Amino acid sequence: MASHIVGYPRMGPKRELKFALDFGVLFLMSFYIFLLQLGIETVPVLIGPVSYLLLSKPAKGVEKSFSLLSLIDKILPVYKEVIAELKAAGATWVQFDEPTLVLDLGSHQLQAFTHAYSELESTLSGLQVLVETYFADVTAEAYKTLTSLNGVSGFGFDLIRGTKSLDLIKGGFPSGKLLFAGVVDGRNIWANDLTSSLHILQALEAIVGKDKVVVSTSCSLLHTAVDLVNETKLDKELKSWLAFAAQKVLEVNALAKALVGQKDEAFFSSNATAHASRKSSPRVTNEAVQKAAAALKGSDHRRATNVSARLDAQQKKLNLPLLPTTTIGSFPQTMDLRRVRREYKAKKISEDDYVNSIKEEISKVVKIQEELDIDVLVHGEPERNDMVEYFGEQLSGFAFTVNGWVQSYGSRCVKPPIIYGDVSRPKAMTVFWSSIAQSMTKRPMKGMLTGPVTILNWSFVRNDQPRHETCYQIALAIKDEVEDLEKAGITVIQIDEAALREGLPLRKSEQAFYLDWAVHSFRITNCGVQDTTQIHTHMCYSNFNDIIHSIIDMDADVITIENSRSDEKLLSVFREGVKYGAGIGPGVYDIHSPRIPSTEEIADRINKMLAVLESNILWVNPDCGLKTRKYSEVKPALSNMVAAAKLIRTQLASAK
Ligand SMILES: *[C@@H]1O[C@H](CO)[C@@H](O)[C@H](O)[C@H]1NC(C)=O
Ligand SMILES: *[C@@H]1O[C@H](CO)[C@@H](O)[C@H](O)[C@H]1NC(C)=O
Ligand SMILES: *[C@@H]1O[C@H](CO)[C@@H](O)[C@H](O)[C@H]1NC(C)=O
Ligand SMILES: CC(=O)N[C@H]1CO[C@H](CO)[C@@H](O)[C@@H]1O
């Protein structure tokens, strides 16, 4: 075996956990045998036993101190059974994914690997065994443990992310074993630099021996788009820079052949031409943007006045009641709305008709909110398809695929934009609609933007400059938008950073650097506004207690948080004494469910929050946008929410 695709297609490691040992084995066996009967021999892939436990969550009610690793001897017999079945079916190889080997593991956890593979050794005999790692490089300790495992014939490394693994291999590799070199990026969409990869492979071969290097993708191809072949909207030049899964398979094969002296010169030279064209293309480089982003480095960006003084200035202007009510941004996206957008895109309806339909929808949403007596309104985002695509389509440096879907989780898929060049904003993106919406009401209308970190994380990002540089460029574009909104009279602007927590690197050593540039990028977007302009941000996944100080450092005036599914967790951080002076709106009800919460229930939630947060900083809002809900659910739920806020306001006033 000289080339290898890391388990394609299949479920991601976390998903796999749920299935692996029950349904998964069944699937695995039936797929394996099905393909074998067709005469195609595949490598069956199993999540490795230690990663299986380390990535599992204890069931509810299990004591915190319980170590999942203590279950290892319970699950190894199941692994043995599966391995025996695979052997009986005729398998010659088996792959164990142990992605947790790229985490910061302690010696106890590392010992679990040694123990598990020693236990499996006799069952594995007669099989070729590959242990794969991916998504980052491995530490020196993990490398030592991994390469000393018993019964293993090959080790796989992600050589795209991080450089440590490469150095470790250069420092020594067990003789006679195979090295699965992940030189083709499984998580991005860029064409491989074949010449440079070949050099790396040749250098590795010089260390580990002839015929001991297997060319591989850096991880499963689950994380990239499927095939470039049907991408009709991307131009020829841009397409020549890209490789989706189907193209990556060709790259892996071309590299493997080249390594044994059968280099396809035409393939290599055409890819070299593509690389050269990408490097020198004026579509990629925008001098002015490069300069502006470079000027940000090393300097700090913060609003001049501290948050408590700003909140005072804002309150003078906004004159909001205690426990102000608001929603996160989107209102239900009806079939009609989707049809209008689709027809406009397909040029089936005129611009005038489109604008009028959207205006009508905004007017409806504004009226509903006024009738409900919500304090800070939103326009409902009827013109937007998606939080990132909407902005990407209006920024330069972005491209969009027609079929570039990637599985996000379960049956949910996303179609990330491709950032291929320096990012700039040719013209205002949201001012038109926000101004129209504001003109329909006397109440404050929130301007709604997606933050730079989220745009970055939900896109396929350039690999020819560091992520943070791309992020700074997006931040500057959003900054222009924030300032244009302010000029247009929008006094509350929400900049969503739903993905801030999601982008956190796996390894602790890299987390501080990430948080630093991510938080800095957010501050850049709004450092230029007046004290009286109120900046909100919204975040998903309340599990960010570990980064609470970074969140405070974002210096937003108000933060709303998806919370209602894990109330206690979020509030505990404040109970433990973290000082939070800005406004905060932990979601008071879960919009992911059609259930309509009662007034009492919401009031109870607000009271729980008031036990740990000051009443003058607490906001009342649902936990997320309402786009996936129906009006028949949204209206009564918001009505109860406003009633609950009013109830507690009265109680607070009479308690004085
Ligand atoms: C590409 O389009 C052709 C023709 O419509 C179709 O048969 C094929 O399945 C498509 N391939 C992919 C990968 O979508
Ligand atoms: C914030 O700034 C105001 C005036 O600018 C000052 O009086 C106040 O002490 C500052 N508060 C904090 C917590 O630094
Ligand atoms: C965001 O970034 C993280 C870390 O790189 C990654 O695990 C996650 O899949 C990304 N999200 C999306 C939607 O690409
Ligand atoms: C990703 C990429 O550019 N692949 C190209 C490499 O060269 C061969 C041969 O010309 C093309 O077929 C690939 O599309």
UniProtKB/TrEMBL annotation:
Residue ranges annotated for the Cobalamin-independent methionine synthase MetE N-terminal domain, each copy included: 36-207
Pathways per UniProt: Amino-acid biosynthesis; L-methionine biosynthesis via de novo pathway; L-methionine from L-homocysteine (MetE route): step 1/1
Pfam families, A to Z: Meth_synt_1 (PF08267), Meth_synt_2 (PF01717)
Gene3D superfamilies: 3.20.20.210
EC number(s) from the headed UniProt entry: 2.1.1.14
Claim: Transmembrane helix is one of the keywords in the record: yes
Domain Cobalamin-independent methionine synthase MetE C-terminal/archaeal, first and last residues per copy: 323-646
Essential cofactor(s): Zn(2+)
InterPro entries on file: Cbl-indep_Met_Synth_N, Cobalamin-indep_Met_synthase, Met_Synth_C/arc, UROD/MetE-like_sf
Keywords per UniProt: Amino-acid biosynthesis, Membrane, Metal-binding, Methionine biosynthesis, Methyltransferase, Transferase, Transmembrane, Transmembrane helix, Zinc
Molecular function in Gene Ontology: 5-methyltetrahydropteroyltriglutamate-homocysteine S-methyltransferase activity; zinc ion binding
Catalyzed reactions: 5-methyltetrahydropteroyltri-L-glutamate + L-homocysteine = tetrahydropteroyltri-L-glutamate + L-methionine
CDD domains according to UniProt: CIMS_C_terminal_like
UniProt record similarity statement: Belongs to the vitamin-B12 independent methionine synthase family.
PANTHER family: 5-METHYLTETRAHYDROPTEROYLTRIGLUTAMATE--HOMOCYSTEINE METHYLTRANSFERASE (PTHR30519)
Function: Catalyzes the transfer of a methyl group from 5-methyltetrahydrofolate to homocysteine resulting in methionine formation.
Name by which UniProt lists this protein: 5-methyltetrahydropteroyltriglutamate--homocysteine S-methyltransferase
UniProt organism field: Rubroshorea leprosula
